[in-house]
């Protein structure tokens, strides 16, 4: 069983600041820098190799959101990656000894050696040593961990006091620019105290008293999360795990855009409290394709042109899968009746029925 | 949504105990409650999840069914014995909500389903005696097209929205409960209460009392039964008027009949006048229409909902014809 858990930053940020010069020095020795206009994400993993996958697509998206480059440190190797880079199977940088990477890890305020084999530690820096976010994620699949950690780091970078005004990327960049400006004004000398505007969101709000540790099995991956009982499965998928394929339409179970499979049965994720799901496996639209190969139902929606704006489509496809499994709708009229929980404001219904009938015929033929 | 605590007991006694604490609400499928939580109509301090209890089975014996309170609506509707011996129940369940919601919603939750009155669901509206006792009823002078005509009071004209309950009432079902004073069985006919001066009270359950099962007995009227629902769109809409009917025929004559109405009353509504009018009559569309005219005589209409008087009669006649056509 795969396991991923997102742990909150575990070291007070005051300690992080002590590592500022150390990290800058360490990065300088490596000849690595995010550049003065670009934040840097440093990820430490026991093993991790980038490969084209849905996770890498998410990783690229999160890096774009942060406006950051990635420095992946694994197995004594250091690998730089920007969100629009082609994958280079040999890596850009190679051959650092374990001592060097351990020093970099220490300079980020992380324990050395790495405490758990499936742990991925992730630090977002300004490129010269200011740490603006930090996440520890545990997962067997390091790419999943990286995607989840980047998403969590992005959320962490949204300070409550800024959140209403700026997007995530704007916050990170604005704050970093502020930090650089201050450093420049001081002749780039190390300030005795942390600059007041350098750090976006170190201070977490007080932990809500009523959260529960909940393990959710999403698309075969187990995530361990602290969840308030009032939070819907839909909000956990979208806001905590970055799985934004399931859509929020009405948030009252009337439109079906949030449809997911729980235990193989289609349900409205907006009406499902996440704490009530337990370890029952959840399948979202992200769990259907195998690499680049679309699920037959997805392929049928494409070939039959069963969408216009596409907002309801993930819910339609998941609901259609539930319908096929239920095996009670056969005629077009029955398919329409049993898809009544999924609204399409573009009115693509006739093609949706055609797509479902096509995929259903293929699945029964196969 | 207000913050609340969450508890998932694994024994009835623990659930009953937890349910008696102030501000506690039971949750089963959640399709009704989570909706109302999000609307701020419900503001509990504690949710007691009944999903850990052992009430998820459908037991079949020669006399009928005992259906666990946690059985999902879709599983009940698809159960072979329900389809074969209680078609009205299967049809009523499948006419309700959407496949997604039926996969979540439970028997127990459906029994306790809250009204769809828009004034009840909108906390910006001050006057709702059901939500805030003594505050008045905005629906009486407001938009009342979906509202009830039977069983209403000056304090509330909200309609009970359940389809399943209409079928269960026609089947003369019994509700089994476990409460602070032990277990008991309640006829479904006595389970829901009329609004009267206390529309906030909707059923006879005591604080902490949980529904554990519903039993229905096999019968001739259960076997030859049908559910017809009139609504504003072809699917996934609440009833304007609905009818659950069962017939026992002797030759081409009606020997026994049961009729219950939905969408038109404060609670699932047994229609004894029509049942009486059917006895001994020929099982023809004409006599069904004539008998159905006995329905709705006590209706208290508003200008918005007076159309339901005729609609309900036609729905009853149609359901009787469908039941008679079955072999």
Describe the 3D structure.
The complex is a heterodimer of chains A (366) and B (327). Chain A has 366 residues and is α+β, with helices and mostly antiparallel strands. Chain A folds into three domains: 7-185; 212-287, Beta-grasp domain (Ubiquitin-like (UB roll), Roll); 296-365, [2Fe-2S]-binding domain (DNA polymerase, domain 1, Orthogonal Bundle). Helices cover 37% and strands 17% of the residues of chain A. Chain A is built from 13 helices and eleven strands. Chain A has helices at 13-18, 20-30, 54-66, 98-107, 142-156, 160-163, 168-185, 233-240, 274-277, 296-303, 313-326, 332-338, 349-365, and strands at 2-7, 40-45, 69-74, 77-81, 119-125, 131-138, 212-218, 221-227, 259-262, 265-268, 282-283. The relative contact order of chain A is 0.11. Chain B has a five-stranded antiparallel β-sheet. Chain B has a four-stranded antiparallel β-sheet with strand order 9-10-11-12, sandwiched between helices. Chain B is globular, with a radius of gyration of 19 Å. Among the domains of chain B are: 5-51, Uridine Diphospho-n-acetylenolpyruvylglucosamine Reductase, domain 2 (2-Layer Sandwich); 220-325, 2-Layer Sandwich (Enolase-like, domain 1). Classes of the chains: A alpha+beta (366), B alpha+beta (327). Chain A binds chain B through residues 208, 210, 212, 228-230, 232, 251-253, 256, 259, 265-268, 270-273, 275-276, 319, 322-323, 326, 328, 336-342, and chain B through 1-6, 8, 27, 30-31, 34-35, 37-38, 47, 49, 51, 74, 78, 97-101, 103-104, 234-236.
């Amino acid at each position: 069983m795969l396991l991923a858990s997102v742990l909150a930053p575990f070291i007070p940020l005051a300690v992080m600041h002590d590592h500022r010069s150390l990290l800058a020095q360490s990065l300088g020795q490596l000849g690595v820098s995010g550049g003065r206009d670009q934040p840097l994400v440093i990820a430490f993993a026991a093993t991790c190799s980038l490969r084209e996958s849905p996770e890498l697509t998410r990783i690229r998206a999160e890096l774009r959101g942060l406006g950051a480059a990635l420095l992946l440190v694994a197995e004594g190797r250091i690998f730089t990656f920007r969100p629009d880079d082609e994958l280079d199977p040999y890596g850009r940088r190679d051959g650092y000894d374990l001592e060097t990477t351990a020093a970099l890890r220490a300079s980020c305020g992380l324990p050395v050696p790495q405490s758990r084999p499936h742990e991925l530690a992730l630090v977002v820096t300004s490129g010269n040593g200011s740490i603006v976010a930090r996440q520890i994620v545990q997962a067997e699949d390091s790419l999943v961990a990286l995607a989840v950690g980047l998403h969590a780091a992005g959320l962490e970078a949204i300070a409550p006091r800024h959140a209403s005004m700026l997007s995530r990327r704007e916050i990170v960049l604005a704050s970093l620019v502020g930090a650089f400006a201050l450093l420049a004004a001081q002749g780039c000398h190390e300030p005795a105290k942390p600059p007041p505007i350098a750090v976006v969101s170190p201070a977490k709000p007080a932990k809500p008293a009523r959260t529960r540790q909940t393990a959710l099995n999403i698309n075969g991956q187990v995530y361990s999360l602290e969840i308030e009982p009032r939070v819907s499965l839909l909000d956990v998928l979208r806001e905590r795990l970055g799985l934004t394929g399931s859509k929020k339409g009405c948030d009252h179970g009337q439109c079906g855009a949030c449809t997911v499979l729980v235990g193989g049965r289609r349900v409205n994720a907006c009406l499902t409290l996440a704490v009530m799901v337990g370890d029952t496996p959840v399948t979202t639209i992200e769990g259907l394709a195998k690499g680049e190969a679309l699920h037959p139902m997805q392929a049928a929606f494409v070939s039959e042109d069963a969408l216009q704006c596409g907002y309801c489509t993930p819910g339609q496809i998941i609901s259609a899968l539930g319908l096929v499994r239920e095996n009670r709708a056969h005629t077009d009229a029955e398919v329409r009746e049993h898809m009544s929980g999924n609204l399409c404001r573009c009115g693509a219904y006739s093609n949706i029925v055609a797509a479902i009938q096509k995929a259903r015929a293929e699945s029964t033929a196969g | 949504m207000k913050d609340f605590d969450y508890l998932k007991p694994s024994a009835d006694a623990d659930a009953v105990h937890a349910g008696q604490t102030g501000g506690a609400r039971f949750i089963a499928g959640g399709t009704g409650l989570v909706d109302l939580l999000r609307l701020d109509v419900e503001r509990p301090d504690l949710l007691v999840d009944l999903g850990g209890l052992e009430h998820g089975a459908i037991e079949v014996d020669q006399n009928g069914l005992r259906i666990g309170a946690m059985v999902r609506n879709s599983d009940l509707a698809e159960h072979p014995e329900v389809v074969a011996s209680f078609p009205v129940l299967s049809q009523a369940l499948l006419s309700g909500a959407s496949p997604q919601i039926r996969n979540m919603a439970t028997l127990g939750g459906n029994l306790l389903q809250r009204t769809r009155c828009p004034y009840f669901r909108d906390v910006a509206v001050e006057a709702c005696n059901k939500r805030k006792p003594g505050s008045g009823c905005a629906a009486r002078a407001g938009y009342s097209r979906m509202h009830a005509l039977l069983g209403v009071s000056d304090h509330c004209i909200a309609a009970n929205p359940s389809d399943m309950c209409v079928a269960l009432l026609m089947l003369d079902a019994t509700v089994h409960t476990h409460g602070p004073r032990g277990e008991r069985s309640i006829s479904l006919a006595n389970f829901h209460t009329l609004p009267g001066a206390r529309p906030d009270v909707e059923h006879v359950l005591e604080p902490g009392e949980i529904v554990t099962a519903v039993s229905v007995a096999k019968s001739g009227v259960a076997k030859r039964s049908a559910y017809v629902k009139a609504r504003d769109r072809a699917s996934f809409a609440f009833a304007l008027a609905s009818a659950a009917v069962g017939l026992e025929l002797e030759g081409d004559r009606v020997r026994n009949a049961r009729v219950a109405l939905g969408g038109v009353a404060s609670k699932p509504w047994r229609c004894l006048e029509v049942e009486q009018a059917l006895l001994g009559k020929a099982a023809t569309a004409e006599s069904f229409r004539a008998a159905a005219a006995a329905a709705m005589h006590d209706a208290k209409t508003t200008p918005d909902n007076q159309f339901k008087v005729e609609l309900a009669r036609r729905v009853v006649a149609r359901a009787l014809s469908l039941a008679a056509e079955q072999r």
